[in-house]
Design brief:
370 residues; Rossmann fold; 23% helix; elongated
Length: 370
């Protein structure tokens, strides 16, 4: 399916979006850097998510790409052209906000047609483009309704159709699902990914929701205090976080600290209370140095026989049933405990507070973080 581009011609769905390059981008408010020398190279057609807590700089970065915030320094290139200081209406970029920003007095069709009318498209082209956009977001038949007659998810689809109807090379989305309930948000994640893949528009998406970022993204940029903490695919960030912040912000991790020791060919971590644990093979760390190991709760198993590298005895001090899984808090010593996630299969054991258990994990399932 094709939407109209800015030359008022049809384009096939396999046409990719633009390459977007942020080069040493800076935004300073007073003496405070909100965005601190950020550089990202976004491939044509890529779905890239800016992820981070409040105040990390992700929305400011997006607003600079959109043109609503003026950079203090750096470049924003779209297909090689620096647009950093162009006004928003000259950038030809689609934007979707959390608030939807639909015109309440206009019909769905008129809302979607608005950017085409501003660009003075012929009426016949507008009608065709609006019909195609409605079909793309699965709202054919809703063209004469007003926003107040739509559900939250339907309003979000209209906002998305309006942002894409003129076939921009870049689509920006700022927390677009924040106002929706969990089930609807999950449904819209699938729809957004389907639409983005079918059109090939380069998409930059802002969220603080880790699961949403993992679901939607080709790559994720984790931001903290205006800087990039790590860039990678969802799998890379989840499986190989480079820092405690990333390991803790994306998903959940147990952190174990100690001193590195060598036992023959093996590298060990010795905790302050004398427990020794095997480190992953190939760990780039020297004996005698302080290390921090991260292990995901779902990688820890409740052991009935020694099948793992690291086995510890502990006591269950908390049991939380969450449907598909049960989360256990297992006290290992007086100083530290581990979070364990057990899938609720039919044959899974049922634990209660005070139960003595053995937990363990493979050394290769842990990762060292800074």
């Amino acid at each position: 399916m094709a939407l109209l581009d800015n030359k008022r011609e049809s384009r096939s769905a396999d046409v990719r979006g633009a390459r977007v390059q942020l080069i040493d981008l800076v935004k300073i408010y007073g003496d405070t850097p909100a965005v601190d020398h950020v550089s990202i190279d976004i491939a044509p057609g890529e779905f890239l998510t800016l992820l981070g807590p409040s105040g990390s700089g992700k929305t400011t970065t997006l607003m600079m790409i959109a043109g609503f915030v003026t950079p203090s320094g750096g470049q924003i290139l779209v297909n090689g052209e620096d647009i950093a200081y162009l006004p928003p209406h000259q950038r030809n970029i689609g934007v979707v906000f959390q608030s939807y920003a639909l015109f309440p007095h206009m019909t769905v069709a008129d809302n979607i047609a608005f950017p085409l009318r501003m660009r003075k498209y012929p009426k016949a082209d507008i009608a065709r483009a609006v019909a195609e956009a409605l079909e793309l977001v699965r709202l054919t038949g809703f063209e004469n309704r007003k926003p107040r007659q739509l559900s939250g998810g339907q309003q979000q689809r209209v906002a998305l159709a309006r942002a894409m109807v003129f076939r921009p090379p870049v689509l920006l989305m700022d927390e677009p699902l924040g106002a929706l309930d969990k089930k609807l948000r999950e449904e819209m994640q699938v729809e957004i990914k389907r639409i983005q893949e079918s059109t090939g528009i380069t998409t930059v998406y802002v969220t603080h929701d880790q699961e949403e970022a993992l679901t939607l993204s080709d790559r994720i940029v984790v931001m903290r205090n205006g800087r990039i903490e790590q860039v990678g695919t969802p799998r890379e960030l989840y499986e190989q976080p480079v820092s405690t912040f990333v390991a803790d912000f994306i998903g959940e991790s147990n952190f174990i600290e100690g001193q590195c020791e060598r036992d023959g060919s093996r590298l060990l971590l010795r905790t302050s209370d004398g427990i020794t644990l095997s480190l992953p093979d190939g760990a780039d760390v020297q004996p005698g140095s302080r290390v921090r190991m991260a292990i995901r709760p779902e990688r820890i198993v409740l052991v009935t026989e020694t099948l793992t590298d690291n086995v510890l005895d502990g006591t269950v001090e908390e049991v939380i049933y969450v449907g598909e899984s049960t989360r256990l808090r297992v006290r290992i010593t007086g100083e530290w405990s581990l979070s364990v996630k057990q899938q609720n299969r039919a044959d899974a054991a049922v634990w209660k507070r005070g139960d003595r258990v053995r937990v363990g994990w493979k050394a290769s399932d842990a990762v060292l973080v800074s």
